[in-house]
Amino acid sequence: MTQASIKVGMIAEETGALSFMGRANANVARMVVDEINANGGLLGRKIELYLEDGATTDAVAAAKAAKLVSQDKVDVIFGGIYSSTRQAIKGPAVVKGRTLYIYPEQYEGQECDPLIFCTGPVPAQQLDPLIPWLMHKTGARTFYLPSADYIWPHVMNERVRRLVTANGGSIVGEEYHPLDHMEYDETVARIMSSGSEVVFNTIVPPGVVPFFAQLHNAGFQDRGGQLICTYFDENLLGLLPAPHVEGLYGCLDFYQNVSDPFSKTLLGAYDKRYPGKEQFTGGSACSGLYRGIKLWAAAVNEAGSLRQEDVIAALDHAGIAEGPGGPAEMVPGQHHVRMNMYIAKAKSGRFEIVENLGAIAPDEARVPSVAESGRRPIA
């Protein structure tokens, strides 16, 4: 008798404003699942991928999460890019559906649920090393914070304010706009008149394209201004003319010119299978998704079953010796990953790593156990 397949749910933004990122994530999910199946699957069973389009719309993602749980009865769900999308998936998948959910994107941190694991970088891994490093390197002291109006920018900006102030600098402007806002002339005028030396940007697609264009045209970089955008990667660079983001600094767990052999081999395998503009990148959650599926698979193998409590217990300390950007491991009790981090700078349309920071811990709060939370997983 053939054993039933293991069902993996994936919500990717295959359409909408983040489709260039979501299609890359869908590619990664297919590639990793195919690789695991080619090596015998998990527990002697094949993985069946249930891929759904979140359409860069939170209500759609919530509906797809409900379908994956109630109709498809998946064993685990991956996906989501915006933090608001994670929250939208969380309701039907975790709170109501009591299903294990692995969120792969770099984000603001502070997710603390026994059924959720996060496999992308958080502020302690991005902002804490980057802001002091940049201030020391450039001498910049004044920061302006143009932002999208949702949870990620608000939490990130609060951390930036603390770091800048602690290092002798100041915030000279902070403002928030709807995610689909496209007119930034007034914002750019305020940035220029403020004399700000650094723009720390959390405006997201689609608005980030006209914002950076208008900022460049106003001469911000020409006067020596510094750009920071912690989610920017090679996929994002491809959206804009290179001069608009020349010199932009980021801090991620993976860039395409990371030099370790495994990362190079992985990138080559992806590019061969998926040639085109949807690239394997860090800020687009590809690295976190690859890492997340591999960590989950390691946990299932250790647990020896799909019993959710056992998988969660194993995932709490799971590690992989190889991954994009280097090895990675869950920090026990935190449901977040210790991983290698890199500071990079955009040059002529590509990112060049300027600082290898080594492995950095997420420094997140302790997550309550399933028993402590009172929310029992489905057996």
What labels would you give this structure?
12 helices; 379 residues; 5-stranded antiparallel β-sheet; 20% strand
Topology:
Blueprint lengths: L5 E7 L6 H20 L8 E7 L4 H13 L5 E4 L3 H14 L4 E3 L12 E3 L4 H16 L3 E7 L2 H16 L3 E8 L7 H10 L3 E3 L7 H10 L8 E3 L5 H4 L11 E4 L8 H13 L12 H18 L4 H8 L3 E2 L7 E3 L6 E11 L2 E11 L9 H4 L6
Helix pairs in contact: 1-10, 2-3, 4-5, 10-11
Q: How do you describe this structure in short?
A:
The radius of gyration is 20 Å and the shape is globular. It starts with 5 loop residues before the first strand and ends in a 6-residue tail after the last helix.
Could you explain the architecture of this structure?
By secondary structure, the protein is of the alpha/beta class. It is 39% helix and 20% strand. The protein is built from twelve helices and 14 strands. The protein has helices spanning 19-38, 58-70, 83-96, 123-138, 151-166, 185-194, 208-217, 234-237, 261-273, 286-303, 308-315, 370-373; strands at residues 6-12, 47-53, 76-79, 101-103, 116-118, 142-148, 170-177, 198-200, 226-228, 249-252, 319-320, 328-330, 337-347, 350-360. The strands form three sheets. Strands 2-1-3-4-5 form a five-stranded parallel beta sheet, with helices on both faces. Strands 10, 11, 12, 13 and 14 form a five-stranded antiparallel beta sheet that branches. Helix 2 (58-70) runs parallel beside helix 3 (83-96). The two termini are 23 Å apart.
Q: In DSSP terms, counting alpha (H) and pi (I) runs of 4 or more, how many helices?
A: 12
What would the average pLDDT be, to the nearest integer?
A: 95
Give me the side-by-side strand order of the main sheet: 2-1-3-4-5
Low-confidence stretches: none
Fraction in helix: 25-40%
- The percent range for strand residues is 15-25%
